[in-house]
Design a protein that fits this description.
Elements (H helix, E strand, L loop, with lengths): L4 H16 L8 H16 L7 H5 L3 H24 L8
Length: 91
């Protein structure tokens, strides 16, 4: 049994999603690293200039935006190890 079955299932579905759209040609380590930086930047803008206390108690509207941004960062970061030849796509 796989060590992280839910992650491996997600990665399988994501690879299928990418293949159906013929995105593999764009998923190079450089491009994915740049995409990850952009996605993380969008996530970080919600925390810029907040104190630690403020960042732990976000208003509902901001929390919803953070929740919307987070999956993009996660999916991009999960794809990077698989396209760079690494097998370390584990948490």
């Amino acid at each position: 049994m796989p060590e992280w079955p839910e992650i491996e299932a997600f990665q399988k579905e994501f690879r299928k999603f990418v293949a159906e759209r013929k995105w593999d040609q764009f998923h190079t380590p450089k491009n994915l690293a740049m995409a990850l930086a952009g996605e993380v930047g969008e996530l970080l803008e919600h925390f810029q200039w907040l104190t630690a206390e403020q960042s732990a108690d976000l208003p509902d509207e901001t929390r919803e935006k953070v929740e919307q941004e987070s999956p993009m960062s996660r999916s991009t970061s999960r794809r990077l190890p698989t396209c760079s030849g690494s097998r370390s796509g584990r948490p």
